């Protein structure tokens, strides 16, 4: 049996959690929009063609913000194609994903959907084929009151009140050679700075996210961030990070450790932001938007079979298994640990495309269903709001091919906004059971309100339309005595323990 302990101290807080930490992402690609959130012929669809069953799952998931409309798609997208009467909208080639875009969903439809499900829209401007002019016009269209060309066009198209989108991405993954309109750091940095200025001149209440690297393994990582921030530091509010993980080598111990890579990545980017801050003698702190993160590898082979120029092809349809639950749990905890700098993060993506919610293809009857990874995200979004406390952890560790010291326990505690309870999230990376002791200085534990876990499954087991077996269940392996909590964590498990706090 493994042994581990966690001490939390009321006065040692990392940060309060920005609710936008539990964001997600809907790109015009694959079956994310068409056949995902939007399917007019589905039995559950509303008058606008959006699926009510998907909406219900999005609400249950607890997503707070959704980045839109891309992604790689963004860098070839003309937003004007998606406004005005639907029958007049052009059908276009989507060069990023080599598919056909019908433009039946555009800004208005998406904004209405977002309002319906209660999420904030994180809008994005195309920096691939377009730039400053388009960006300022789009902000005017979306956020300007009335009486100008673009704001009046919005009103003509049925939206009297401005959409009032608050956060905006200046392009997507502009460091990537695959990106349409890929740029060097200097080219992008200069243009992003001027674009940011123009966008804020239209609406000075918006917040802007500038592109960091597409992942930490990009050859330009580090230099890209330094150069881009050198140009944009004064004009933007967040630097983006993207990272996806997978287990193509089928090495469980190594895969379970990948949150250590995410942790290093975040620390590195924070250091770069602070270097630029010091160099500029700036008083401003650059925060982070981790606006694409997830597990992505299951669908790599099947995607090679997909023919080009289809409408809504089944791209990136990863089917998530039980080991992905454990990894997703560790990634969520890593984001929470950096809540002092990460203010926005987006699980990429939301429906069908590397997503926690899945719908059946070419099927207008069956309900949407929850992938395995739906659950840790849902629980973190529900109980991870409040104040993250510094985790003082003691446990054994192991070594893998890629990592020297991997703690068997990954854990974090969050004090709820009303300070009435503490939620402890934990992943036991060990195959053995773990005796886990939690104590606190400055908080008195009361009763255990909930202990749920996901454990005991075949690590490759998945959910499907007909089986929802991989989900949290209640556990009674806990006791509270003398103000401390003792829990038994099953081998290879995701755990959520909610404890009342006595005032
Ligand atoms: O989320 C899928 C793709 O991954 C996005 O379009 C792109 O930004 C990233 O490379």
TrEMBL record:
<keyword id="KW-0326">Glycosidase</keyword>
<comment type="pathway">
    <text>Glycan metabolism.</text>
</comment>
<feature type="domain" description="Alpha-L-arabinofuranosidase C-terminal">
    <location>
        <begin position="291"/>
        <end position="493"/>
    </location>
</feature>
<dbReference type="InterPro" id="IPR017853">
    <property type="entry name" value="GH"/>
</dbReference>
<dbReference type="InterPro" id="IPR013780">
    <property type="entry name" value="Glyco_hydro_b"/>
</dbReference>
<comment type="similarity">
    <text>Belongs to the glycosyl hydrolase 51 family.</text>
</comment>
<dbReference type="InterPro" id="IPR055235">
    <property type="entry name" value="ASD1_cat"/>
</dbReference>
<keyword id="KW-0119">Carbohydrate metabolism</keyword>
<dbReference type="Pfam" id="PF06964">
    <property type="entry name" value="Alpha-L-AF_C"/>
</dbReference>
<dbReference type="Pfam" id="PF22848">
    <property type="entry name" value="ASD1_dom"/>
</dbReference>
<dbReference type="InterPro" id="IPR010720">
    <property type="entry name" value="Alpha-L-AF_C"/>
</dbReference>
<comment type="subunit">
    <text>Homohexamer; trimer of dimers.</text>
</comment>
<protein>
    <recommendedName>
        <fullName>non-reducing end alpha-L-arabinofuranosidase</fullName>
        <ecNumber>3.2.1.55</ecNumber>
    </recommendedName>
</protein>
<keyword id="KW-0378">Hydrolase</keyword>
């Amino acid at each position: 049996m493994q042994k581990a302990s966690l001490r939390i101290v009321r006065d040692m807080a990392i940060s309060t959690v920005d609710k936008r930490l539990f964001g997600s992402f809907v790109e015009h690609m694959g079956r994310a929009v068409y056949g995902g959130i939007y399917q007019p012929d589905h039995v559950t669809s509303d008058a606008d063609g959006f699926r009510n069953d998907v909406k219900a799952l999005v609400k249950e998931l607890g997503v707070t913000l959704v980045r839109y409309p891309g992604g790689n798609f963004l860098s070839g997208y003309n937003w004007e194609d998606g406004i005005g009467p639907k029958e007049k909208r052009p059908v276009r080639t989507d060069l990023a994903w080599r598919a056909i875009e019908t433009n039946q969903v555009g800004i208005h439809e998406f904004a209405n959907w977002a309002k319906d499900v209660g999420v904030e829209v994180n809008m994005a401007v195309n920096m691939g084929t377009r730039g400053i002019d388009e960006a300022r016009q789009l902000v005017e269209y979306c956020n300007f009151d009335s009486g100008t060309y673009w704001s009046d066009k919005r009103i003509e198209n049925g939206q009297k009140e401005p959409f009032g989108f608050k956060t905006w991405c200046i392009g997507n993954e502009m460091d990537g050679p695959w990106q349409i309109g890929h740029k060097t750091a200097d080219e992008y940095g200069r243009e992003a700075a001027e674009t940011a200025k123009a966008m804020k001149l239209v609406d000075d209440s918006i917040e802007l996210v500038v592109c960091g690297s597409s992942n930490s393994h990009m050859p330009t990582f580090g230099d890209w961030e330094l150069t881009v921030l050198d140009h944009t530091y004064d004009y933007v509010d967040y630097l983006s990070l993207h990272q996806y993980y997978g287990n193509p080598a089928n090495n469980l111990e190594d895969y379970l450790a990948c949150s250590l890579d995410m942790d290093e990545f975040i620390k590195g980017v924070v250091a770069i932001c602070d270097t630029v801050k010091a160099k500029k003698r700036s008083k401003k702190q650059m925060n982070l938007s981790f606006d694409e993160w997830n597990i992505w590898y299951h669908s790599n082979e099947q995607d090679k079979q997909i023919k080009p120029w289809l409408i809504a092809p089944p791209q990136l349809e990863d089917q998530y298994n039980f080991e992905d639950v454990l990894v997703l749990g560790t990634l969520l905890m890593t984001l929470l640990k950096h809540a002092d700098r990460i203010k926005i993060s987006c699980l990429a993506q939301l429906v069908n495309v590397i997503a926690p919610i899945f719908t059946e293809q070419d099927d207008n009857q069956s309900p949407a269903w929850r992938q395995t990874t739906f659950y840790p995200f849902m629980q973190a979004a529900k109980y991870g709001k409040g104040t993250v406390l510094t985790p003082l952890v003691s446990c054994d560790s192991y070594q893998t091919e890629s990592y020297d010291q991997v703690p068997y326990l990954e854990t974090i505690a969050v004090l709820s906004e009303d300070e009435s309870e503490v939620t402890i999230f934990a992943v036991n990376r060990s195959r053995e059971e773990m005796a886990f002791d939690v104590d606190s200085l400055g908080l008195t534990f009361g009763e255990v309100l909930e202990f749920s876990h996901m454990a005991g499954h075949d690590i490759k087991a998945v959910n499907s339309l007909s089986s929802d077996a991989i989900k949290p269940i209640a556990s009674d392996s806990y006791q509270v005595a003398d103000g401390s909590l003792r829990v038994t964590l099953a081998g290879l498990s995701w755990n959520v323990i909610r404890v009342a706090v006595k005032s």
